[in-house]
Amino acid sequence: MTQTHAHVPPGGAHHRHAQPDAEGQAEILELDAEVLAEHTTSIITWLPTTTEPRRILDLGCGTGAGTFALLASFPSAEVTAVDASESHLHRLRDKAEALGVADRVRTVLVDLDAEWPDLGKPELAWASASMHHLTDPDRTLRKIHDLLAPGGLFAVVELAGLPRFLPEDAPLESPGLEERCHAALAHQHAEQMPHRGADWGPKLTVAGFQVEGKRTVTVNIDGSGNDAVGRYAHGVLSRLRERAADVLEADAVSALGHLLDPADAGSVLRRGDLALRTERTVWAARRH
């Protein structure tokens, strides 16, 4: 059975940057996992593992995209999946049961900025899109370094920001709308997540790691005939509208409404011109 160990910091379980609508965030995470499954596997395959790890730590696991890709890539491994959202961990446990791998997964509820319980001595640690949320990432990197088994590997996977989906000249009534939404929120993101877009290589070196590789994966997935890309676009653009409505012009908010209306002919759920565009960079660092 899946083991669950709760370690809740004062003030609640959720990370200070966790999204309030966990259900909507979970759906986006699961769509991301579905659409980018091949890219995630390619990153894991690229990692310079010298032997197959038996104990893996997934830091900021969300609903399990990395956890299940790691379990599939390393069939003898067990994963300790750590996150600050109980609802995300609940989804992960349900999926582990459905996939028949619950005996290989341990979930731990913990805020990575708080004190950690015993997380074992993993040979591989994985952190995908979680490090930039931390208040003091340098301190956390040192903790991860000391936690790893000697010779253990740490993979940091970071995003270039939220993905893009629309052509530059779309929608017809408000060309370039998507980029304007991202630009409107750039300052907000810089304040809330100052470490997003950081070069983790020097930080890893200062923490005591030896960086053994860096790779940037460029993603461009045609959305025509791919229902998941449309649903992913709908989820991301819905969140953009929630956050940017107060700083966008009225015509832009109206155009977003048309894109998000399932009944509208121009809805992202109906369009044939979507493409998922993003970049992911991975750093592989070893403890010696």
Q: In CATH's first tier, which class of the largest domain applies?
A: Alpha Beta
Strand content: 15-25%
Number of E strands:
8
Give the structural class. alpha/beta
> What's the CATH architecture of the largest domain?
3-Layer(aba) Sandwich
Number of domains: 2
Short description, anyone?
This protein is of the alpha/beta class and 288 residues long. It has helices spanning 22-35, 37-46, 65-73, 86-99, 137-147, 177-192, 200-206, 227-244, 250-260, and strands at residues 3-6, 55-59, 78-83, 105-109, 124-128, 153-159, 210-222, 275-286. It folds into two domains: 3-161 and 196-223 and 278-286, Vaccinia Virus protein VP39 (Rossmann fold, 3-Layer(aba) Sandwich); 164-191 and 225-272, no CATH class.
Index terms:
8-stranded mixed sheet; disordered N terminus; alpha/beta; 288 residues; Rossmann fold
List the helices and strands and how they pair.
Blueprint: E1 3-6, H1 22-35, H2 37-46, E2 55-59, H3 65-73, E3 78-83, H4 86-99, E4 105-109, E5 124-128, H5 137-147, E6 153-159, H6 177-192, H7 200-206, E7 210-222, H8 227-244, H9 250-260, E8 275-286
Note down, in words, how this protein is organized:
It is a single chain. With 288 residues, the chain is an alpha/beta fold. It is 38% helix and 20% strand. The protein has 9 helices and 8 strands. It has helices at 22-35, 37-46, 65-73, 86-99, 137-147, 177-192, 200-206, 227-244, 250-260, and strands at residues 3-6, 55-59, 78-83, 105-109, 124-128, 153-159, 210-222, 275-286. It has an 8-stranded mixed β-sheet. The model is unreliable at 1-20 (pLDDT under 50).
